[in-house]
Amino acid sequence: KVDGPIVCCIAWAAMGKSRVSYFYHLSPATEKQMQADVDKHNMGEFSDCPVFDGVFNFCQISAGGSLDAAYRLNQGLSDICINWAGGLHHAKKSEASGFCYVNDIVLGILELLKYHARVLYIDIDVHHGDGVEEAFYVTDRVMTASFHKYGDFFPGTGHVKDVGVKEGKYYAVNVALKSGIDDESYMSIFKPVIEKIMETFRPGAVVLQCGADSLTGDRLGSFNLTVKGHGECVQFVKSFGLPTLVVGGGGYTVRNVSRAWAYETAVVLDEQVSNDIPFNEYFEYYAPSFKLHLEPNPDLENCNRRNYLDDIKAKVFENLRMLRGAPSVQMQSVPPDYLVREEDEDANDPDARTDHDPTRRAHDAEYYADDTDHHGKDDEVEEVHGPANEKQYQTDVNKFNVGEFTDCPVFDGIFNFCQIYSGGSIDAANRLNHGLSDVCINWAGGLHHAKKSEASGFCYVNDIVLATLELLKYHARVLYIDIDIHHGDGVEEAFYVTDRVMTVSFHKYGDFFPGTGDIKDIGSKAGKYYSVNVPLKSGIDDESYLSIFKPVIERVMECFRPGAVILQCGADSLTGDRLGCFNLTVKGHGECVRFVKSFGLPTLVLGGGGYTIRNVSRAWAYETSVVLDEQVSNDIPFNEYFEYYAPSFKLHLDPNPDLENCNTRAYLEELKVKIFENLRMLNGAPSVQMQAIPPDYVVREEDEDKMDPEQRTDHEISKRAHDSEFYAHEKDQLGKQDNMSID
């Protein structure tokens, strides 16, 4: 029985593509049932594991590669195998997670356990290898050792106290690190811990996950390792001479991922490679250095003190001393391999059906060649599906940073998605301009990373910029405030050279996406000093945040005197966010909304980031009540999603007591002084010459109803028609001619 998409993928990887072709023809009975199925396994449009075209083949290749590698190690065909497409360490038995659909590592380890009594798993990804640890948490035959960022960081697991249970007690090793760790600090704990594990556990084989998001400069990471430091881990593990499977993993700055894995391939092969990257078709992506190796970020603080690392090391060693020697395994017959190798299949009778060749099932809608009168010719097919078209399409999507290998994939319904959230912000701005509302909310908006010709950071169209342009038709000055954990780079860039918009962003700065927003970035030309950046460090709490937020906003209001405000309320700055590292509560986040509202200006409140969905809904529900001046209970009322708010079932969150606040009072005071100094450089609030107000983006339905139906409006004339559109009568023909003359 096939139970869900995860098991389907595993079955495919295990049995081989040709043996399960009938899976292509399985379809859900209803759309609702399909949605229930994908939600059950954390897959779908609103999860971090969306279903995309080719997901099945992707899982097959990734998982099949690790299975085949484990088989080669078992048979002595290789000493070390590499599968850079593998390493998807977050996936669980029945749940996709963190961009991981099928846990190829678990499958590879299960294969290795057929020939080896003990297998060691080592993980140097910046994220905890929770899926692998969970799979082997109660066994003493697999030891998992994960070196990761711990705290308010995805997946939020991997405390040093998590040591396994039952037979697996003390066989889970977690090295919980803090932001900014460099090569020297990392090696000072990695090498002694691995050496002690090898001595105590005595594994027969090793699996090493080399997630490259622990490198300096990663868009979602916060470590400061160089390519050499990362590769030194591979070199050290290789030095023990055990059968080793090296797999990939995370990595969100693609040019650095390729640097690391190219270098580590050379390490495995004992090859020397030049630091100069040879010219190739992707050469431009390695600008400006065009070098293989990276320099650490000198501005990223290493929060891992020597005494902290020594304390972690002592706890790990104490746990390892509790082991009663390496476990033995009773002799037994070796189970069959997952893989049926091609040479084995060739030896079989080609006319005989194998045990794993099921009866092919045909979909009801399938038809055969004889059922149609016309068959597509080669030139007809190539006209729309030829290599030239595919290459041109790929060039077009790459040009705008949209596509399969970016952080802005193309998905079904993308146009409607952009239309709804952008239109919502434009319509809200229009309502504020006409005095129809005092405050408008569009929680679907706030996509602050998108640029004029580039999608970025899950943001396709910058609705904030569009709404600001609409507000500027009626207001001389507009203030933009951003409390998302990521810098509002797209909005700042759009208005970097104007004095009519001031952008104020409170964000995590350093080795953190998008890597912009230094306090020295203040605008240029007419916009000089009209960009305000407040670069914060990890772990900031309510008290520290409000101690700088309120004075800065108060001074900005006093100096800039805006006519309208846009407030972006990205909820990834909350405690417990899967990609964030701040420690704000829902009340603290909402207090920012309350404070901005207190100035009584026309205000557009928008959403933004947020990767722990239950906390996003908590924050925006509470902030909606703040805007409405309503009191809401801390007890979440029962509803169909009630279970997601376990275990507290409360609206408000408690801060994480284990997350260190790296923002000292002196640091925040220094920021405040620099910002106030920049604001003093302003020559008063800018004025705008009187001029005719441009037409609204939005023609409201009630306005159209009041118009003379026989009279054509400017808005109607300006509509452009597609060449293929046809018309029913003379008036429309005239409109078409007008449109052609305009074009």
From TrEMBL:
Q: What keywords are annotated for this sequence in UniProt?
A: Chromatin regulator, Hydrolase
Q: What class of enzyme is it?
A: hydrolase
> What InterPro entries would the database entry show?
HDAC_I/II (IPR003084), HDACs (IPR000286), His_deacetylse_dom (IPR023801), His_deacetylse_dom_sf (IPR037138), Ureohydrolase_dom_sf (IPR023696)
Q: For this protein, what is the EC number?
A: 3.5.1.98
Q: Which parts of the sequence belong to the Histone deacetylase domain?
A: 29-267, 359-626
Q: One of this protein's Pfam families, by short name?
A: Hist_deacetyl
UniProt GO MF annotations: histone deacetylase activity, hydrolytic mechanism
User: Which spans does this entry mark as compositional bias, Basic and acidic residues?
Assistant: 350-378, 708-735
Domain of life of the source: Eukaryota
Which residues constitute the signal peptide according to the record? none
Q: Name one GO biological process term.
A: epigenetic regulation of gene expression
The keyword Hydrolase is assigned to this record: yes
What is one cellular component GO term in this UniProt entry? nucleus
Q: What family does the database annotate?
A: Belongs to the histone deacetylase family. HD type 1 subfamily.
Q: What is this protein called?
A: histone deacetylase
